[in-house]
Design brief:
The chain has 7 helices and 15 strands. It has 285 residues and is of the alpha+beta class. The longest helix is centred in the N-terminal third of the chain and has 14 residues. The model has no long low-confidence stretch (mean pLDDT 97).
């Protein structure tokens, strides 16, 4: 039985209750984060909380928690749910009003919920041991503020389900100009001639924390060139390697796209080196 946090109390999951008038339930009016923890050590805690604070500000949700308050909550969840690897799901909504009404209500207390979620063990950064992914491509039909990590994920879910129903593990999304944006639940990268290329951050793309850490460790090491720029569909299909990244997948190789092999159909050498650098540095952020 998992112990969760809800509005000031740590309680069994079965006892957690939220009003049906909560605006998260009615409108998807809220922000969330998932922070991976391995052996009690969190990955990217500071950047995750920074992104949550920025998202809350973008939605004008008034919750003035410090990093220390979030850290104490997360640490207590780790202590109460001592799994070797766990994702700490943090969820803040505007709260429950007395009626269903579209404008932001005044004087409403935000709902704060947090729970442990099962995540796989950290991937092994070796070409012959890692799980590779198959992806399907499609046009990006999500809303125009994907840089906000909103709990309103229906567009992502529909894309993800469309790919899943076709036997894929993820989707690669392209905007109306034929440029790569991201995935249903991951950031995306290509490798060409030894250079890692990933779309520049804008309103179409979530600023992923794994992406932040990965690019940081690659630039600190300096042995692999990195570019942030627009990536065309043609470049994706001509890539030597394709990667995706998220908090639970870390950096993962893609070996099939729309049924075609990527490169030789095996995880590439640039991915292997980058994944090893990420593994060595991921707890430093």
């Amino acid at each position: 039985m998992s112990i969760v946090y809800l509005n000031g109390s740590f309680i069994p999951m079965e006892e957690a209750k939220i009003s049906p008038l909560d605006r998260g339930f009615l409108f998807g009016d809220g922000i969330y984060e998932v922070i991976p923890s391995y052996g009690g050590k969190m990955v990217g805690f500071g950047p995750h909380i920074d992104r949550m604070i920025e998202g809350l500000a973008a939605l004008e949700i008034q919750l003035n928690w410090s990093h220390d308050q979030w850290r104490d909550l997360c640490q207590e969840l780790i202590n109460l749910n001592p799994d070797p690897q766990v994702g700490l799901y943090l969820h803040v909504t505007r709260g429950a009003d007395t009626k269903r009404h579209h404008p932001y209500p005044a004087g409403v207390t935000p709902t704060v919920f947090a729970m442990p979620t099962a995540i796989p063990a950290a991937p092994i950064p070796q070409r012959d041991k890692v799980n590779a992914y198959k992806v399907t491509t499609m046009q990006d039909h999500r809303w125009k503020k994907c840089n906000i990590k909103s709990i309103s994920l229906l567009g992502n879910v529909m894309h993800y389900q469309q790919g899943y129903s076709q036997g894929s593990d993820e989707v690669l999304l392209f905007n109306e100009q034929g440029e790569l944006t991201e995935c249903g639940a991951c950031n995306a990268y290509i490798v060409k001639n030894g250079t890692v290329i990933t779309p520049v951050l804008d309103n179409q793309i979530l600023p992923g924390i794994t992406r932040l850490i990965a690019l940081g460790v690659l630039r600190e090491d300096g042995s692999i060139a990195v570019e942030e720029r627009n990536v065309t569909r043609e470049e994706v299909f001509d890539a030597d390697e394709i990667w995706i990244s998220s908090s639970s997948k870390e950096i993962a190789p893609v070996t099939q796209i729309d049924g075609q092999l990527v490169g030789d159909g095996k995880p590439g050498p640039v991915w292997e080196k980058a994944a090893q650098l990420y593994s060595a540095g991921k707890f430093n952020y």
